[in-house]
Specification:
Length: about 160
């Protein structure tokens, strides 16, 4: 998350500069390049979290029960990494264009986490249901951001 946020901030500044300079072709090139870089990081994080989540968590928390629970969380969160990278990178593109309302879908999807978490927890998943709600909503935000940008791309570029 932090890594993709840094890339997003850099893309936002680059986009704003090039948009003001009417260099729109550079914006799209930068977006695709940034997506490639964050996708590599997303895939690596996915592999690390899904297959070695407990080991990663054990570096922080030495108690076995805690790092095993943390490993479950990282495994579930790992599935959303690539789409979360897509969402955060695309956010940088929107912010660089100063498009109003770019965060609206994020707030809506984040709000949907609560009933989804309650439903999944009540369905027998317990705390794991809460983690799945967070991961699934991150995936949804990534898809929505990418589709939204694809629709608006011709208008803003």
């Amino acid at each position: 998350w932090n890594t993709s946020q840094g890339f997003s901030t850099a893309l936002s500044a680059f986009t704003a500069q090039n948009y003001a300079a009417h260099k729109k072709e550079r914006i799209l090139t930068a977006y695709h390049t940034t997506l490639k870089m964050t996708s590599i990081i997303g895939v690596l994080c996915t592999l690390l979290f899904v297959f070695y989540g407990s080991e990663v968590f054990s570096l922080i928390v030495p108690e076995q029960a805690a790092y095993e629970a943390g490993g479950i969380f990282l495994r579930i969160d790992g599935y959303s990494m690539i789409l979360m990278m897509l969402e955060i990178t695309t956010q940088g593109m929107f912010y660089g264009h100063d498009i109003l309302g770019t965060g609206d879908h994020q707030h809506l999807v984040n709000t949907l986490r609560i009933p989804l978490a309650i439903g999944l927890a009540a369905a027998g998943l317990g705390i794991t249901g809460v983690w799945w709600a967070i991961s699934l909503s991150s995936m949804l935000k990534g898809v929505v951001a990418f589709i939204w940008f694809s629709i608006l791309q011709k208008k803003i570029l």
